[in-house]
Design a protein that fits this description.
Blueprint: E1 12-16, E2 21-24, H1 37-56, H2 75-86, H3 96-106, H4 121-135, H5 138-153, H6 163-169, H7 194-206, H8 214-224, E3 227-229, E4 242-246, E5 266-270, E6 276-280, H9 284-296, H10 304-315, H11 330-344, E7 348-351, E8 360-363, H12 364-375, H13 394-409
Antiparallel strand pairs: 1-2, 3-4, 5-6, 7-8
Helix pairs in contact: 1-12, 1-13, 2-3, 2-4, 2-13, 4-5, 4-7, 7-9, 8-9, 9-10, 9-11, 11-13, 12-13
Length: 419
């Protein structure tokens, strides 16, 4: 169940938008059952300090975050910040920092409907679309349908963008038999991947697109080909696998579209006959992204694909690392983790105990709040744990942390497309 927590019912309200000072009120808000009262308060303390850090690091000249005045910039960073702030019950699009960020984001609209600065069109547009849909201003609403159409044209399918633009944007017209069918990519790699697909589905979900629509149903075909379970995945690299987790792509390049690809690498497995084979390793951020994408496509909760992913999640539950790949992409993992389990909407994840002990029940939202509070630094940002995938940037990892906390708090209502 989704809860919309209004500003009047919020535990902590803005004492004044200009000063952005949060003040305790005597009003007790409705609390999702996934958090105890102390964890709920801890989540808001951590969240408010992180938002204050982000406010202090907005680029005054452009209005955005993570702006590179000397070259190409990523509007997605600004969009991540805005999206996280707007999910706070006491912040809306009239907030001065949000309004400035929205103006910057809208300045990056392209004639094709995308929202990007020359590179990574799908990644930037998808994350921007989520933020604009949540903002709900007149100008933001006007940008939503073109961005939706642009993203859907980047999905590998029969209805992909025309050949004149497809090469530049890294997409091709294919039928269901093609390994790339249903996927979305960065554009520069010439092949789709789960990360970009998950961001696109998140954006369509956030902007009110129906789960029964072609983009979601095509995505399921690609998702099945990334799930390491030969009961649902007929690709050769899934043969003999019953992991249930996900890898990154069906292939590393257009020349090798069907050999699989995992950013977590591979491991060796000894078979019953003594032979040794190499297996692609599933990992956390992609498995939670795949699980969440199945849910957004409205697969039943008892569907074997959903249950196989849930089993992997239980067997590999941790907040100490991005399981399968260590500290790389850790804060990205926290966003995938929290959004997926928010969509699952159950406060507990169960995993088997060690050496035959009883099943362990993990209260995932409380675990997440505790972990992020431990990682928060004096200035409100979150500690840098690794350099890979831009996570040496404190603004980016703090924006990720805010989004993860918002998912734990369930302050993330679905936005109506007609808003």
């Amino acid at each position: 169940m989704r809860l919309r927590i209004t500003a009047g019912a919020g535990l902590i309200l803005l004492a004044g938008i200009a000063s952005a000072a949060f003040a305790q009120t005597t009003t007790t808000p409705a609390m999702p059952s996934r958090l105890s009262p102390p964890a709920h308060e801890a989540a808001y303390r951590t969240l408010n300090r992180a938002i204050e850090y982000l406010r202090a690091h907005r680029d005054a000249s452009s209005g955005g975050w993570g702006v590179n005045p000397q070259g190409v910039t990523f509007p997605a960073i600004t969009a991540l910040v805005i999206d996280g702030m707007l999910q706070h019950p006491a912040i809306d699009a009239a907030d001065p920092d949000v309004a400035a960020g929205l103006a910057y984001l809208l300045s990056k609209r392209q004639p094709d409907g995308g929202i990007y600065d020359r590179v990574l069109p799908s990644y930037n547009t998808a994350i921007a679309l989520s933020a604009l849909a949540r903002a709900g201003t007149k100008d933001a609403r006007a940008a939503v349908p073109p961005a939706q159409r642009f993203l859907m044209g980047l999905q590998w399918s029969e209805d992909s963008l025309s050949a004149e633009v497809s090469k530049e944007l890294g997409v091709g017209k294919v039928d269901r038999s093609d390994p790339f069918y249903g996927g979305v990519g960065y554009g520069s790699h010439g092949r789709p991947d789960l990360s970009n697909l998950a961001f696109m589905l998140q954006a369509l979900h956030d902007s009110g697109y129906e789960a029964e629509s072609p983009p979601f149903q095509r995505a399921v075909v690609f998702l099945e080909r990334l799930q390491m379970d030969d009961r649902v995945n007929s690709m050769p690299y899934a043969a003999g696998r019953r992991d249930g987790g996900f890898i990154y792509a069906t292939g590393p390049s257009p020349e090798k579209p069907a050999i699989g690809d995992s950013e977590a690498g591979s491991y060796e497995e000894t078979l019953d006959d003594g032979s040794v084979i190499s297996r692609l390793r599933c990992y956390g951020s992609m498995t939670y992204s795949g699980f969440k994408s199945y849910l957004y496509a409205d697969l039943p909760r008892d569907d074997p694909r959903v249950q196989a992913a849930l089993q992997w999640i239980g067997e590999n539950y941790t907040l100490d690392e991005n399981p399968g790949i260590g500290q790389d992409g850790y804060y990205y993992y926290l966003v995938a983790f929290s959004r997926a389990l928010d969509a699952w909407d159950h406060p507990v994840i169960k995993s088997a105990g060690h050496e035959g002990t009883d099943t362990v029940e993990h209260r995932w939202a409380e675990d997440l709040v505790t972990k992020l509070a431990s990682l928060q630094q004096e200035d409100g940002s979150f500690a840098i744990l690794a350099n890979r995938w831009l996570e040496k940037d404190p603004v980016l990892v703090t924006a990720y942390g805010v989004l993860a906390l918002q998912a734990a708090l369930d302050n993330n209502p679905t936005v109506s497309a007609s808003q």
